[in-house]
């Protein structure tokens, strides 16, 4: 029996008139990597952003349906969105480090969740950077600007920043698509290590990446989930013809 | 054959290009000549106080008594310099938090009201002539201060309050632009860590846009520093350093506008006013340099 970390039940997302996500129900298993694949505009990123209520920031966006984090429905109007986002972290396509030092980037979250003690903060910063495999590169320049790091390093810093608030789930929206191949492989290695401690949902355009890092894969098309299964099954023996067409490169 | 055809087609374009170049060149030349003649004129007039009339530079900058008609005449401009700096900096201290908060409201809290209502109101505020600000200041603020505080109501407090209203549009507009140009990812990044809106504004938005905010504030100070009419109407125009914010005093600009009609061109009294103008101009250069330096820092 696999524990479910996060689960969407009949989730619909509307942008004004546009119905971007149709009745999507997906379970994300604890300490597994789930990949969401599909062509551009298929709703996978929109769906991802709904999971930590990021779409609340877009006025015209309406999300209906249930999202269960453990035994709590987090898509209600009475949900404490701030507390929720502490439990569901997010990493974007473009690294978005704050215009602060490396140390302050990591300490930002914990500080706001009540960690004041300097020693404790130091420890969180070191642990988070170690877990994100960027400690060795940054330990001598912790108080230098994070913007001086390379794109790949910035992205790992953003992952470290997310880890620092100890979420249960990490959402990643094409985390490597703005990076060079070497940085990409580092991020992929990192994802495989992180799943020992976190449940990860990753949106990717790169099917090889999905095949390499994920345990399960969901194929999105026009706002619907066409197929959701073990990654191996999706890539070697998909049930749906459209999935097969997509992964063999017939469209997309 | 084909080649000559090409050339025929190309010639009118070349002529057009040439005319355009010459025209823009004349325009820029005109601009440069104007600026340099202004600087030269003000500097030569302003410096002749010291060179021709033999007034000591130190006496002018640090002297406390301004008695151009005295025997001997005294040209101590420190009260004016003090008045100018204190009113403009106080005005910025009043206007900066207001401007920033208004910008936060317009960009972060209610973009719709911001765009459709606040933006036009602020543009309107910027378009009101300074004499109107001065008149309102004289009819509303001065009597109010006269009732509330000891003194005549005129002075640095009234001057800075009027100036604060006048520079508020500048500061708000620049703060709004700065907030709007913040990379969207930064705010999302902060929200995704579980920060509240207030924490995000205070810890991410404000520090990241600080150089741009400072540009707005310095531009505001520069504008306040150069404003003459509105200040002259509410400051009282006594040439001494006041003991309180509600006591009559003067600024560089108000001293010039008040006396310029009463002095003969070329006299020491007239030249001394030009020296005040020179100080104003040099301060403007300083402000421009500060702004340029801040602009450079914006591109981290």
Automatic annotation (TrEMBL), chain A:
Ranges of residues in domain ABC transporter: 6-247
Broad class of the protein's primary localization: membrane
Subcellular location, record wording: Cell inner membrane
Keyword Membrane: yes
GO cellular component: plasma membrane
Keywords linked to the UniProt accession: ATP-binding, Cell membrane, Membrane, Nucleotide-binding, Phosphate transport, Translocase, Transport
SUPFAM superfamilies hit by this protein: P-loop containing nucleoside triphosphate hydrolases
Domain of life (superkingdom): Bacteria
Membrane-topology annotation of the record: Peripheral membrane protein
Molecular function GO terms recorded: ATP binding; ATP hydrolysis activity; phosphate transmembrane transporter activity
One family name in Pfam for this protein: ABC_tran
One GO term (biological process): phosphate ion transmembrane transport
NCBIfam families: 3a0107s01c2
Its biological purpose: Part of the ABC transporter complex PstSACB involved in phosphate import. Responsible for energy coupling to the transport system.
Protein name: Phosphate transport system ATP-binding protein
The species this protein was found in: Paenibacillus catalpae
From TrEMBL, chain B:
Protein name: Phosphate transport system permease protein
Superkingdom of source: Bacteria
Segments crossing the lipid bilayer: 21-43, 80-109, 121-145, 157-180, 201-225, 272-294
PROSITE patterns to which the protein is assigned, alphabetical: ABC_TM1
Matching Pfam families: BPD_transp_1 (PF00528)
Domain ABC transmembrane type-1: 81-291
Family classification: Belongs to the binding-protein-dependent transport system permease family. CysTW subfamily.
